[in-house]
Amino acid sequence: MSGENASWAERSDKVFMKTYARYPAAMVKGEGCTLVDAEGRKFLDCLAGIAVCSLGHCHPAVTEAICGQARELVHTSNLYYTLPQTELAELLTANSFADRIFLANSGAEANEAAIKLARIWAGPERYGIISLAGSFHGRTLATVAATGQPKFQEGFEPMPEGFSHAPFGNLNVLDAMVADQTCAILCEPLQGEGGVRPLDIEYLKGVEKICRNHNLLLIFDEIQTGIGRTGTFFAYEQLGIVPDIMTIAKALGNGLPIGAMLTRKEIAASFVPGTHGSTFGGNPVAAAAAVATIKIMLEDGFLAAVQEKGAYLQAGLEGLASRFPALATGARGMGLIRGLVLTEKGITVGPDMVNRLFEKGVLINFAGNAVLRFLPPLIISKEEIDQLLTALGEVMADCNS
Ligand SMILES: *Cc1c(COP(=O)(O)O)cnc(C)c1O
To answer: What is the pTM of this model?
Structure first.
């Protein structure tokens, strides 16, 4: 391999820790659903920076908000009030169950804040957090301890105390796991990294009931599902379940790093000056990007279009599953987070299918060792979805033999 991509990859590999297995492309530009690499090659981006660039790359209104704010004020710390973060918190409270917000810089930090709030709310005797097998909650030590996938914990033990994992989908076991020291149940309404696995509504209602019966906080990690991804502003709206605490991040700033923890004021009252904080959290530029992002998503028709395009993608994926039953059993997800569920044979060629799609200029990934995952920008057109489905069909035909 030679050329610009290879040369950037070589320079990069000399200076970075090997925490990422990267595809051989150095991206230099993005517009809408298109990414362009250092050699001018275009990709149809059906991952959106892992559910982040939901309005597409370099959305003009977000770029304008970022540039405008960068000319006025970039950072102050949280020792002072700033305008964009106040506007952002107002938008988030006006459009969710919550009336109090904490701003962080990432998903893991939002979850850390939620874990700390749950513990301080419950008092010193109650510190236990139960999460679910197959979940993903972040890479910091506490969030990795909460994550229900041993591969993320291996080698980093001992894990912080107080985290346990319930098997996926079994309410009796979950109920039996609740102990005197338990203070909260943490779960994703739909497991993203775990393989686009939706939780059954009846199961989630059962989780809510267990929380109410035992005076536990119900924490929803909507870091991947939140901010329009599922076709409503938050996934919980479709479930008829209201959490006590919710965390969001990924799509919030359409690419600028920002996360948030949302709750009600009675619970929030356990945080007082000095109990928790962040130097950068709610930074004016990131907050301005988030305000611009949310305003567009809440425009009339935006979320309805996400649902409609999500159903269109789902139907297309189901069509491919029935054309290639040896590779896929069906499709699942909500809105524009979708997974093509692979058979045992399909799983063995899953990474190969992703590579072949990359070669064809389409970006997706393999999640939870079970599905091909699709997280396109929410602004994707039906023509672009067709382009994805056509390329995927060709790849599946190649891998079918
Ligand atoms: C991505 C993700 C996180 C971690 O977010 P970071 O910003 O990478 O720290 C936590 N929970 C869920 C559900 C996620 O998808």
So the answer is: 0.98
Residue nearest ligand 1's atom 11 by CA: 137
Fold of 80-297: Aspartate Aminotransferase; domain 2 (3.40.640)
**What residue segments make up the domains of the chain, in order of their start?**
80-297
- CB of 138 closer than 6 angstroms to any ligand 1 atom: yes
Q: Is 100 helix (H, G, I), strand (E, B) or coil?
A: strand
DSSP state of 215: T
With the most atoms of ligand 1 within 8 angstroms of its CB, the residue from 186, 193, 256, 375 to mutate is 193
220 lines ligand 1 (CB under 6 A): no
Structure confidence by residue, pLDDT tens digits, 152-178: 999 999 999 999 999 988 999 999 999
**Signed CA dihedral, 144, 137, 198, 196: sign only:** negative
* Ligand 1 contacts CB of residue 188 (under 6 A): yes
Q: Residues 348-359: what's their mean pLDDT?
A: 97
Asked whether 53 lines ligand 1 (CB < 6 A), one says no
pLDDT at 281: 97
For 245, other C-beta atoms within 10 Å of its C-beta total 28
Reported as a single tens digit per residue, the pLDDT across 376-387 is 999 999 999 999
